[in-house]
Amino acid sequence: MCISRHTERGTPIKLLEEARTDKMKKTILALSIAQIAQFAFTGGAMAQQAPAAQAGGDIEKIIVTATRRDTLVQDTPLAITAYTQDTLANNQVKDLATMTAMVPSLVVEPHSDSGGVHVYMRGVGSANHTELGDPAVAFYVDGIYVPRPQGATALMYDLNHVEVARGPQGTLNGRNSTAGAVNLVSGAPSTAKTFGSASITLGDYHHIQTQAMINLPLSEDIALRIAAIKDQHDGYVDFLKGSNVQPGTKKYGAGDQQGARASLLWKFTPDLKATFIADYYSDTGAGNIYLAAEPKPGQNLRSALIDTPGTLDQSIITAKSKVEWRPMDGLATQYLGSWSRLKRTNGSDADAGFYPGFKAENRTEWSQFDSVSNEVQLRSDSESPLQWVGGLFFFREKNKIRFDIDRSQISQAMLDQDIASGSVIFVQPTVGQYASAMSFIQGDRELHSKAVFAQASYDIDPMWKVTGGARYTKDHKFDIGGQNWACPNWPDNAPRGTVNLTPSQIAQLVTPGVGTINTHNIGPGGVVNQQTCGNTYGDNTADLKYGQSTWLGRVEYKPTRDILTFASVTTGFHSPAIGDGGATTKPEKLTSYEVGFKSDLFDRKLSLNLDAFWMKYKDKLESQVVNNTLQNFNAAGASVKGIEAEWSYRPTSADRFSGNATWLKARYDDFLSCDVDAARANNQSCGTTAPTVNVGGATLKHAPTFAATLMYEHDFDTSKGRITPRASAHYESESFVGSGAFNTDVPGHPGVKQQKAYTTLDLSVRYEPLNKAYTAELFVNNATDKAVKYDAIEICTQTGAPCQPTQQIWAAYYNNPRTFGGRVSMKF
C-alpha cells in the first residue's frame, strides 16, 4: 500500500512511497450539531496523517483495502480508522492492546490462561478465547483471516498501515466479524531501490525493544524485504511475602516477544505478480494474572501471593501468498492463501493467592492450532460507472489441546503454621486434606467454512452511488472424541472448619498411599485415565452444521469533492459455538443501520467525520464459566446505538490537533436470566433457590456512555532541527466490566463490577535534526499511573473454591502501570 494525495474522487494524483507522517487522529464527539458546523469534530471512520512539513497545511490520507479495492479513507463509506507505522511508533503502539485509545469504541482485554485477549467494539465482543469459540472482532493480517485471538497480541512492526473497520463486515469479510474487523497490512517489497530502517527503545522495567528492516531489489522484477523485532520487559506484579517462587522467577506481566518476517515480490509479467510471506512470532513471557478488585487499605494493587509462577511458550508460524493477475483490460483477479500453526504451553496461578492455603493451578499441557485459508477474488478494473467484486472463500482449522486444572487445600492448622514460620503460603496437602483436578482433552476439534460473495457499486451520476452485496457462508464444526475429566468428581472443597462433609467432599480427601490415585492431583504431564483420575470422562463429541446469508445495501451522496455522506443497512452473523459436554448454541445474527459523514474542510486543514449507528442483535452469543465449565449460550438480543467522531485539524504548519469520541447506548433486550453474583451473596443458587429475573435494559460490557481521546502536537523549529512535544489524553465515563448481563451492584460489594470514570495521559517529545538522519524521542505512558479495571470476576463463585457462601472474593485484570523510556530510530 502507499499514501497518496487526492483531488478527484477515486483518482490519486501522486503516490508518496515514503511519507513521513506525524499522524493525527482521534476525536472529540460533540452532541451538538451546531458545534459540528463550527469545526470541532470528526466522524466515526477517519484516520489521517499530517506530514511534518507540507505547504498549505494539507492533511494527507491513507489508502485502505476494506472494500477489496484501494480507496482513500475519506472516500471509503465505512466507519474505518487507519494508521501508518510512523504514527503507531510515535504513539508507542506495539500490538492491538496498546492501540485502544486511538480507535473509537475499541477495548482489548488481556487474559492469562492462553496469552489471548478479548476484543470489543461498540460494547460487543466475545469472552471466549479458547478453542471452543470464535472472536466477534475478526483479525486479519494482509487480508488473511487469523482465527485465534492470540494472534491479536502479535507485535506490530514494519507495517504499511493498520485499518480498523467498526460494525459488521458480513459481505466481504464474513468470518464472524459482527463487531468489526482489524487488518494489519505489512510493508511491501519494492524493486525501486535499497532502503531500510532500525530503532531501539529503552525504558523502565528493563524494557528493551530492537527492530530493523531492509528492502533489497534483487533484479528489476524481484525484491526481498526482511524485518525483525524483539521486545522484552520485566513484570509488573510483585510477589508478596510467602509466595512459592524461586529466585529469578519472572513476574506476571513480564514480556519476551520476538518476530521476523520475510517478503518476496516477483513480477513475472507486467500483468502478473506474486508476493510470498513467511512470518514467525513467539512469546515466552509470564502471562497476566488477576489482581484484587477490592484491595485492602495499604495493599499494593500490583502484587499477589503466588504459588504457581506464570509460564508461557507460544509461537505462530505463517506462510502466505498473494497473487495478482490482470488477464485482460478491465478485469483483475487476486488469490490469497495461507497456512498457519499456533503452538502453546502455559501455566498460571488461577487463585492468585486470594484464599491462602488454597491452590488452583491452570496449565495448557499442549496445544496446536492449524489453519488453512484460500480466497479467490475477481473484480472490475476500469473507470466504468459499474464496479464489482466477487469471490470464493475456503477456510479450515484443526485444533487440539489438553488443559488441566489442579486444586488443593491445606488445613487451617497447617496454614497457621506456615504463616507463623514465614515459609511459603502453600504446601502439598497431606492425608485428610483436599485435592482434586480436571482435564479437558480435545484431540480433534475442527471448523470447515466455505463462502461465496459478491458486491457491486454503480455511479448514478457524479454525486450519487449505490452499492449492494451478498454473501452465503456454510460452516461445519465438529469435535471427535473430546473428553472432560473430573478427578474424582466436580470439585466441592469444603470451607475450612467444616465438620459435616458431603460424599463429594469425602471423595476428595487425600488418603494414605503414594501416587495421584491418592491425591487426585494430575500434576504437570500426568497421565489421565479412569484409574489415575478415579472417575470416567464426559464426552465432548459434537457435530454442528450451519448456513447463513448476509447482505449489504448502501447509498452514497458526494455533493462536493471534499464531502461524502452515506447510509447503509448491513447484516452479519456469528457462527454457532460448541461448548464443554458437546453443548451447542444458535448463531448470533445482527442487522446494522448506519449513517456517515466525511469531510475535508477549511482548505483541507480539518478532516471531520461522523458516524451514527443502530445495531440490533438477535440470539447474542455469551460465554461464562459455571462450575468450572465454559458455557456458551444465547441471550435474547441486544440493541446498540451510538455516534462516533474522529477529527484531525492542522491550523498551521506547526500545530496538529486530533481526536476521537464516542457516545454509546448498548443494552440487552428483554430476556430472563439469573444473577449468579447476587445469588451467591444472598446464599442462593441459580436454578434452585435464586429467582430468575428480566435483565432487559442492562448495559453491555465495555460500553461506556461517553469516551474521547484528544491529542496535540506542536513543532518547534530550531537552528539544528525540530522538537515536537505531544500530549494525548483519553477519558471514559463509568462502564460495566463484569461478566454476565448484570451491571447492578453485588450485595456487600458496591461498584466491584464497574470501572469508574477515568482519564489517562500519555506524553512524549521528539527531536529530528535538519538532515533527518535520525529521530530521538522520550515518552511517558499512563503518566498519572491510573489503574483501569478491564475485567472483574468473583473467583469463589465456582464450585470447588473453598469460600463461605457469602465470602465473595473479587479479582480483576488491570491496565499497565506508568512506564517511561526513550527511542532512537533511523531510515536509510
Structure keywords:
Beta-barrel_TonB_sf; mainly beta; membrane; single chain; 7 helices; disordered N terminus; 828 residues; Maltoporin, Chain A; 2 domains; Ferric Hydroxamate Uptake Protein, Chain A, domain 1; transmembrane; transmembrane beta strand; 22-stranded antiparallel beta barrel
Flag low-confidence runs: 1-57
Amino- and carboxy-terminal Cα gap: 20 Å
Q: Which percent range describes the beta-strand content?
A: over 45%
- The number of domains: 2
Estimate the global geometry from the Cα principal axes: globular
Q: What number is the mean pLDDT?
A: 85
Number of helices: 7
| Class based on secondary structure composition and strand pairing | mainly beta
Radius of gyration: 27 Å
Q: CATH superfamily name of the largest domain? A: TonB-dependent receptor, beta-barrel domain
Question: What proportion of the residues is helical, as a percent range?
Answer: under 10%
Quantity of strands, as a count: 48
User: Could you describe the largest sheet, including whether it forms a barrel?
Assistant: 22 strands, antiparallel, barrel
- CATH topology of the largest domain, which one? Maltoporin, Chain A
CATH architecture classification name of the largest domain: Beta Barrel
CATH class of the largest domain: Mainly Beta
Membrane topology: Multi-pass membrane protein
Keywords: Cell outer membrane, Ion transport, Iron, Iron transport, Membrane, Receptor, TonB box, Transmembrane, Transmembrane beta strand, Transport
Pfam family, one: TonB_dep_Rec_b-barrel
InterPro entries: Beta-barrel_TonB, Beta-barrel_TonB_sf, Plug_dom, Plug_dom_sf, TonB-dep_rcpt-like
